[in-house]
Design goal:
Layout: H1 2-9, H2 15-27, H3 36-59, H4 76-79, H5 90-101, H6 113-136, H7 162-180, E1 183-184, H8 192-195, E2 204-205, H9 227-230, H10 234-243, E3 254-256, H11 258-281, E4 289-290, E5 302-305, E6 311-318, H12 335-346, E7 350-356, E8 367-372, H13 380-391
Helix pairs in contact: 2-3, 6-7, 7-11, 10-11
Length: 392
């Protein structure tokens, strides 16, 4: 606490930041250390500072017959868990006993140690995932200038650094793992390729779920990632079964973290659903309907190749919820700017396709708003437009 206050005195941290840091430590939320014992020690240290502070505040004046301790009710939740098997000042004991004795607990409000560990593991995994993606997507358009390591100025060499190529390969392994195994009975079910992704184990957890596979404390279910609608289409369902992709979620076992399901998993099943429909309804071989690699990696989800290997047309596939509005992320490049830069790089048209039919028609001629409806039926106009773009 003294270290934090020193930083506050020197104007390096605001009082709100000091309070936030202490709150994070005391609540045992969102703190990540390599060893659980270190995290427990840091949390106990912060709690001791608060205990002693309560005692000192009560003793700053001559004691009357009664001492009144006022507290902010937002502190209540921190007193409802295990306060540790250690000595407390008598003032802190009185405060904690009063709060625990006068607070109604609705259900099990205390988060278990296992749940805390699950959250910490998943946050650590997602941190590593972000770093891996930053490397893999080094050559994609950014709203800031990127410095390329291991590349000479003015070099026309189109090869990429080894660390970028490795990150791209790991990202592909990760994407294949999550679309095949959103739920596993145990981590031993993951294949050798999936286990090469170092943080993948921490992406899974025994999160509490309902019978339909949806999370009890998180609004994530097969319906919220549109898996149920996609599986209504026979061509998509057969494509998933043929390639070993999950067609539903089990209510047992270990499941991916909700944020991964809502973002990465939803995107992957959307891409594969689009691929299934293209291979079914369009005269295009799988060899000519490809993913991008190296410096063009992730500029689009799919590109259709000409016989000479050049790009004919590219598609960026979305699996968005059609009932909500989707806006550009703060601080990121606008969709129009990104597309302009990507088209310049690819040298071919780029179309954005949403898998589910949207409640409106886009004014942008490079957007296709819905390939199937909520019943899984293919939209004739959309598929014929895609067919025309690929077969021309």
């Amino acid at each position: 606490m003294m270290s934090l206050m020193m930083l506050n005195e020197r104007s390096w941290l605001t009082q709100n930041q000091v309070g936030h840091w202490l709150e994070e430590a005391i609540s045992k939320k969102s703190i990540r250390f390599k060893e659980d014992a270190v995290a427990m020690d840091k949390a106990a240290w912060a709690q001791t500072m608060i205990e002693q502070a309560v005692g000192r505040i009560c003793r700053t004046r001559n004691k009357p017959l009664s001492t009144y301790v006022l507290y902010d009710e937002r502190m209540t939740e921190f007193f409802m868990g295990d306060l540790g098997d250690k000595s407390h000042t008598k003032e802190f004991k009185a405060l904690s006993s009063y709060i625990q004795g006068h607070t109604e607990i609705g259900g099990d409000s205390h988060v278990s140690a296992e749940e805390v560990k699950l959250h910490n593991d998943s946050q650590a995994a997602q941190c590593k995932l972000r770093k891996m993606r930053e490397k893999a997507l080094l050559f994609t358009p950014h709203p800031y200038e990127v410095e390329y390591e291991n590349l000479e100025d003015g070099s026309e060499d189109l090869s990429i650094p080894y660390y970028v190529k490795r990150a791209q390969i790991m990202n592909q392994y990760y994407k294949q793992a999550i679309i095949r195994n959103p739920v596993v009975a145990s981590l031993q079910e993951l294949d050798e390729q999936a286990m090469m992704v170092p943080f993948l184990r921490k992406c899974y957890g025994n999160w509490e779920r309902d019978e339909d596979g949806s999370f009890c404390q998180h609004p994530v279910s097969p319906a919220s990632v549109r898996l149920d609608v996609l599986m209504k289409n026979k061509a998509i369902h057969e494509h998933f079964e043929r390639n070993g992709y999950a067609t539903g979620w089990s209510s047992d076992g270990l499941i991916l973290h909700p944020e991964i399901l809502m973002a990465d998993y939803a995107g992957e099943i959307g891409e594969e659903a689009f691929k299934a429909l293209v291979l079914r309804y369009v005269d295009c071989s799988e060899e000519l309907f490809a993913h991008l690699e190296d410096r063009d990696y992730e500029l689009a989800d799919f590109v259709v190749l000409n016989p000479d290997g050049s790009y004919k047309v590219a598609f960026d596939v979305k699996n968005m919820n059609p009932t909500i509005e989707h806006l550009d992320r703060d601080g990121d490049m606008s969709t129009a700017e990104k597309r302009q830069e990507k088209v310049k790089r690819l040298g071919c048209p780029l179309y954005t396709v949403n898998m589910l039919k949207m409640p409106f028609e886009s004014m942008d001629r490079y957007e296709i708003c819905g390939v199937i409806d909520e019943d899984g039926h293919v939209q004739y106009d959309a598929i014929m437009r895609i067919k025309g773009l690929i077969e021309r």
